[in-house]
Amino acid sequence: MVRSLSMDLRSRVIQAVNEGASRREAAARLGVSPASAVRWCARLRDTGDASPKPQGGDRSSHRIEAHSELILSLLDETRDQTLFELRDRLAQHGVRTNHTTLWRFFRRHGITRKKRLPTPRSRIDLTS
Question: HSE of 67 in the Cβ direction (CA atoms, 13 Å)?
Fold first, then answer.
């Protein structure tokens, strides 16, 4: 993942702009892209701080979490269904999602999807 440029570089670009250089001139002088200089100055103007925004993280789980009651009720009706079957049943209720989104939902909630009971260990041979 790409890391943010340092706060020192950001402050030098902003200082150059405050001293009268254009954003493009300051960017060229300090070796950053003009778009970055424009964004940093705009962020300073809008928020009062030019520090980088947080990167990464989950930005889409709230969409599936809004339907958590429906998902859990469908799961309670039929415990022995695949993620693809559950995805299709959700589509019947107007919820479009992907099986990987459902997998992450279950992982967040600590729900395992093992479909068969574990077999006892064999003393003589390995079991599947």
Answer: 22
